[in-house]
Design goal:
It contains eight helices and two strands; from the N terminus they run βααααααααβ. It is mainly alpha-helical and 218 residues long. The protein has a single domain (2-216), classed as Fumarate Reductase Cytochrome B subunit (Up-down Bundle), CATH 1.20.950.20.
């Protein structure tokens, strides 16, 4: 087995920044919609809701910046970071996609092996990226309600025209659960790959290094 640097530093930073910011957004967002901790005493002194909203807002910016850096690295990174790993653009990649999908659906016993993203995983990351875009648009639109004009109202106010407040909140809430469901499946798939492939899948997101047979290097 030989060592292969698969995930470069920007990709690893993106992964952890995304994971931590989504965790913070889910926790604070759920609290904002359904306060599950009641603080006794002077609300102005405790200011728990205010802190939750502040953390939610900062985490949203962290996630947005992480996505912009990842989009840039689609074109500057190594072949494992390329946008082609997320969007199948060749017949070979689509062929691998169907083989991998059959394995996940228990229609094929042999697990296809990949050093980078397998085609099903890559396409699922694209879907999650779109869900995060929906989260960002609806979240900033809800934030823009507090302004009559200015930056936020100019760029996101059009959503307040197309959708009612409660519709935006519902979309924002449901999308959060879809992203969290992806997280559970993603974690399961990572553990499964670690057990079956034994190529350092889980450790690679920290070190960036995976292992492969020399004959499979190209």
């Amino acid at each position: 087995m030989r060592r292969v640097l698969v995930w470069e530093l920007p990709v690893r930073v993106f992964h952890w920044a995304t994971a931590l910011s989504i965790f913070a957004l889910a926790l604070t967002g759920y609290y904002i919609g359904n306060p599950f901790v009641i603080v006794s005493g002077d609300a102005a002194q405790a200011y728990l809701m205010g802190w939750m909203r502040a953390v939610h807002f900062v985490a949203a910016f962290v996630l947005g910046i992480a996505l912009l850096v990842r989009i840039y690295w689609f074109f500057r990174g190594n072949r494992y970071a390329s946008w082609r790993e997320w969007i199948p653009t060749s017949r070979e990649r689509w062929s691998f996609f169907w083989r991998q999908l059959k394995y996940y659906l228990f229609l094929q016993r042999e697990r296809p092996l990949y050093v980078g993203h397998n085609p099903v995983a890559g396409l699922s990351y694209l879907v999650v990226g779109l869900l995060i875009l929906v989260q960002g648009l609806t979240g900033f639109a809800l934030y823009a309600e507090a302004f009559q004009d200015g930056f936020w109202r100019f760029f996101f106010g059009w959503l307040l025209v197309l959708f009612a407040n409660q519709d935006l909140r519902l979309i924002h809430h449901v999308t959060m659960w879809l992203i969290l469901a992806f997280f559970v499946v993603h974690l399961y798939m990572g553990i499964l790959a670690e057990i079956e492939e034994r190529n350092g899948t889980l450790g690679s997101i920290v070190s960036g290094v995976k292992f492969e047979e020399p004959r499979g290097a190209e």
